[in-house]
């Protein structure tokens, strides 16, 4: 029964990657599985600890492939290392539609996606072209405030 459950899980992970036009290699499956297990955004260093038998370059390339294909988004939370989180279903990482607020807790150092809180549209001066936006609210999360 355990083997059958594992096979179903792998097929589901493969399907998730294929839907984003990402070839499902063993490493990509491991990284996706690790990201699915996270409730917070994760840095490359933290991902290294989660995925055994991996090297930093391969993990970085995997994350970049995921990002280029709209499976993950990166977050600059001001800590000096980008964090990565899975995109919501239906996300196309479009500035006007999909960007949301992130929260960085100063106590536990966790960064959390808040997809229900969208970044409002910002009207830029003529001939300015937006390529990315990032809104990070910093403070104390509910877990640490308790």
From TrEMBL:
Residues involved in Zn(2+) binding: 105, 108, 141, 144
Pfam family, one: FUR
Entry's cofactor comment: Binds 1 zinc ion per subunit.
Any single GO BP term: regulation of secondary metabolite biosynthetic process
InterPro entries: FUR, WH-like_DNA-bd_sf, WH_DNA-bd_sf
GO molecular function: DNA-binding transcription factor activity; transcription cis-regulatory region binding; zinc ion binding
SUPFAM superfamilies: Winged helix' DNA-binding domain
Listed cofactors: Zn(2+)
Keyword Repeat (UniProt): no
Gene3D superfamilies attached to this UniProt entry: Winged helix-like DNA-binding domain superfamily/Winged helix DNA-binding domain
Stretch forming the signal peptide: none
Domain of life of the native organism: Bacteria
Keywords: Metal-binding, Zinc
Protein name per its UniProtKB record: Ferric uptake regulator, Fur family
